[in-house]
Write a structure and sequence with these properties.
Elements lengths: L15 H8 L1 H14 L6 H10 L6 H12 L5 H24 L4 E2 L2 E2 L1 H5 L1 H22 L2 H24 L7 H26 L5 H27 L11 H4 L5 H8 L3 H11 L7 H11 L2 H20 L6 H15 L3
Antiparallel strand pairs: 1-2
Length: 337
């Protein structure tokens, strides 16, 4: 059994993502082959642009959840592997689209695809990857998993539209923001877990538990990303510090800082989140967030979701895969410190 939530991990050991990847090495190798097979096209820009993102060093966390969920429950083989590849394609497609919408210049420590190939190509290759994800789902011959991932793709799109509508809205509430990230981020984590369970032939309570695990993990993951945008470690995670601020996104650190603000600070938040931002405003925003302990509050919120993710696993058979998924939930929060 892995260490309990909150218990320190052994110093110097590989982190949880690497341990899970080692446990799933054979499956991940097969998934990588499926990904490269299905992103091939005689239209050269498609595989080139797709490979620029997909081969840029992403950890494949979402596909690993699908694979580990299936293995945890005694499943494996081609079905879960194809679903894992489909999950990675959905994720990659949303990243390509997001970078266009957000006018992002950096992704995974490299120039974003839209910078190199332009917005139109990025959007269209994202559409291609979405289509390929459905090809893979159909190849499994399981209508249940097709339904799970198709619904998730719809919810993700809804979440992105909700976030776009909330951009530059200084009055975005915590409840509204949690609704947005539950859709745009956590839905795919949840679907990844549930699809793996269903592919293993366990569509009942065990699938529900893994869906809950994925959802809670996804919420924790996004909240840590929110904190990193103001916490100084964003560059080490392959993103630019201050991107959320520059895009007018009211994330949880901003919500917490605004809740504790005085009138002058509220006026500042209304101005900068309303769209009137200067180059120097990010530094003041970060200072206000630090002053009110908003990063720590955001990380504590992430920790609560991480604990809920681990708790969701407790009803499942204890084995190496369950332990690795529990460790992953701990690591998602640890990376914020």
């Amino acid at each position: 059994m892995g260490p309990a939530v909150g218990q320190a991990k052994p110093a110097g050991g590989p982190h949880a993502v690497d341990r899970l990847a080692a446990l799933l090495a054979e499956d991940l190798s097969a998934v990588d082959a499926l990904i490269h097979q299905h992103m091939s096209s005689p239209v050269g820009v498609i595989p080139n642009l797709a490979a620029h993102l997909i081969d840029a060093g992403g950890k494949r966390v979402r596909p690993m959840i699908t694979l580990a969920a299936a293995r945890l429950l005694g499943g494996g083989g081609d079905g879960p592997r194809k679903l894992a590849a489909a999950v990675e394609f959905i994720h990659s497609a949303t990243l390509l689209h997001d970078d266009v919408v957000d006018v992002s210049s950096m992704r995974r420590g490299k120039d974003a695809a839209n910078v190199l190939w332009g917005n139109s190509s990025s959007v269209l290759v994202g559409d291609f990857l979405f289509a390929r994800s459905f090809n893979l789902m159909v190849e499994t011959g399981d209508i249940k998993v097709l339904d799970i991932l198709a619904r998730a793709a719809s919810v993700i799109a809804e979440g992105e539209v909700m976030q776009l509508a909330a951009a530059n809205d200084a009055d975005t509430t915590r409840a509204r923001y949690m609704e947005i990230i539950a859709a745009k981020t956590a839905a795919l984590f949840a679907a990844a877990g549930k699809a793996g369970a269903v592919a293993a032939g366990r569509p009942g309570a065990e699938a529900d538990a893994l869906e809950t695990y994925g959802r809670e993990l996804g919420l924790a993951f996004q909240l840590v990303d929110d904190a990193l945008d103001y916490g100084g470690r964003a560059a080490t995670m392959g993103k630019n510090a201050g991107d959320d601020f520059k895009e007018g996104k009211v994330t949880l650190p901003v919500v917490f800082a605004r809740e504790a603000a005085d009138e002058a600070e509220l006026s500042f938040w209304r101005r900068v989140m309303g769209g009137e931002r200067t180059e120097d405003d990010f530094h003041r925003a970060a200072a206000l967030i630090r002053r009110h302990g908003a990063i720590e509050k955001t990380l504590e919120a992430a920790r609560l979701h991480s604990r809920a993710a681990v708790a969701a696993l407790e009803s499942l058979t204890q084995n190496a895969y369950r332990d690795a998924l529990a460790d992953l939930a701990d690591f998602v929060v640890e990376r914020g410190y």
